[in-house]
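Entry, Tuesday afternoon. Goal for today is a structural model of the target with zinc ion bound, before we commit to ordering more compound. Inputs were pasted exactly as handed over by J.K., no edits. I checked the ligand SMILES twice against the vendor sheet because last time a stereocentre got dropped in transcription.
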Amino acid sequence: MIGFLQRLGLAKAVCLNCGKCFYGKEQGYICEDCLTSLKPHHPLDYSRRIPYISSYRIFALYEGVLRQTLIALKFQPSKALAINLGTIIKDHLFEYLEEIKPDLITFPPLNIRRLWSRGFNHAEWILKGAGVPAVSLFKRHGFSPPMARLNREERQRAVKEYRLKKECMDLLEDKIVLLFDDLLTTGATAQRLAELLLSVGAREVHAYFVAREQ
Ligand SMILES: [Zn+2]
């Protein structure tokens, strides 16, 4: 019921970042003042290489409003919030798209259990908000918990669960692919997905992350 009232803009919500009450017309978790305060972080250090990734970009650091927004997306999934975040990163993302001119844009898959419990892939919906057409190239076997909760060894094992969809393998010959994800932590996921793309003939793989852990 609250969700319904929020969609109508009639229910008050409390911003998870600043604690201010607002009418949650759009999504109900992060207020508009906080969201519009998000700006690309300059300059960022790109000296750390991610194996198999030709280049990458990051919108900002995983702190403050951005951190609260990504946490909200993880635990209180809201397509509207994902879309709002997409509109905020849009200009920054498009600058990078202009630079690398990808043929395909894609995102990591959730495993079935998470997709089922959350109902949607937030990376896919952030891209929708940015107005960027993307294709789902991967699937994920197994039931590993989210990467953030795993140690290094468990992550190595979990990334092995990623596979390319069979029907997508022929699409990738000589293509420049952009991987889009919300958070860069170890880079293990991006590395594994890039390895898969290159193994079926992709020419280059680049990556864009909404946030990076310091
Ligand atoms: Zn706020």
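The mean pLDDT is 88.
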